[in-house]
Design goal:
Elements (H helix, E strand, L loop, with lengths): L4 E3 L2 E2 L9 E6 L6 H4 L2 E5 L11 E5 L12 E4 L11 E5 L2 E6 L7 E3 L21 H11 L8 E5 L8 H13 L4 E5 L8 H9 L5 E6 L5 H8 L4 H14 L3 E7 L8 H11 L5 E5 L6 H4 L1 H4 L3 H17 L4 E4 L8 H4 L11 E2 L16 E2 H6 L10
Parallel strand pairs: 3-4, 4-5, 5-6, 9-10, 10-11, 11-12, 12-13, 13-14, 14-15
Antiparallel strand pairs: 1-8, 2-6, 3-7, 7-8, 16-17
Helix pairs in contact: 2-3, 7-10
Amino acid sequence: MLTLSGAVLATNASKGDTKRQLFSLSTNPNLPSPIKSQKAFLVSSGNEVSDGFRHYIVFNVKPERLPNEAPYTIVGDEFRYFGDKDVVAIGNGRIRCLYRASSSHNSILLTEQCNNYCLMCSQPPKRVSDPWLLEEALELIRLIPRETQSLGITGGEPTLLGDGLIELLRLTRNWLPHTSVHLLSNGRAFADAQFAKKYAAVSHHDLMLGIPVYSCDPTRHDYVVQARGAFDETIRGILNLKQLNQRVEIRVVIHKQTYQGLLDLAEFIARNLLFVDHVALMGLETTGFTRANMDALWIDPAEYKGELGKTVRKLRNYGIRASVYNHPLCLVNSDAEQCYVKSISDWKNEYAPECTMCSRRNECGGFFLSGIQYGYSKHITPFP
């Protein structure tokens, strides 16, 4: 698991200077001066150092190697994965990695506020004012390389930002014209037809909205998300979006409260939401609120793999594109394997000791690191 944020070891910034700054990183000492002046240079043992960069990030190298009076920050070896075109934020004695050019799992957190309170939320909402996250995101978009293939946008609940979210999507469309964007939302805001129209008016060339629906029973869905009336708003939101020809993915996290209703939910989607673009059937991440609700949520994936396979078959029989995410490959039956995706983000991906000799490990998504720490299926069976 990668360390995405932490304290810096030293800096020559003024002690009273706590202002956060974003930097695009470079390993090329020969950039033209106008580009150098906008970037931070990664200094490591043995590489050439040239002057003119806006900032220098140092790995265990004496600052004397740097140009005189150059602004620098020294970081520990846990950040050795930093590379060319990555984007970091530095301020208040800390450094955070916001974008990794070598990864296909980059996402931008827009807010930690949410109007749902899901039992298994991996990013527990906070009742705080955090407009700085949107400001940071608007700055970050301008630093992300234009050749980036995909980007996620998440929260909290991004639609709580209202027109701020619309502004960010417009900027993303204009600044990253070749990048596909996946936006996570509970979908409730789109029950407002006018907001749905604002969203559609962005006219992004490749934007998918991932919306959770946990049951075809409104009471069950509302219980999982801990918000009364959420099911009705979510379904109205999906209908409004599809009426405007927007791409929608339905996301289903499978756990003790949802696994028994998988087949009924697939039937509901096929009869009422046949026009959705994708259905993602997702394993449980044992972090955030899940840890506090393990007794109510945890079920061994081996116990529902039959229901999972039948659900995949039903969706496919209706012509609905479906995928299975966040499951070990050995806990997926052959009827679901055709939709299997190695999906867990690389920075929080891990494998169990039993997986060491598995012949299909490279095809398998493995586990969330939190799953290794807090317990996983007793039915892991390495492929010979």
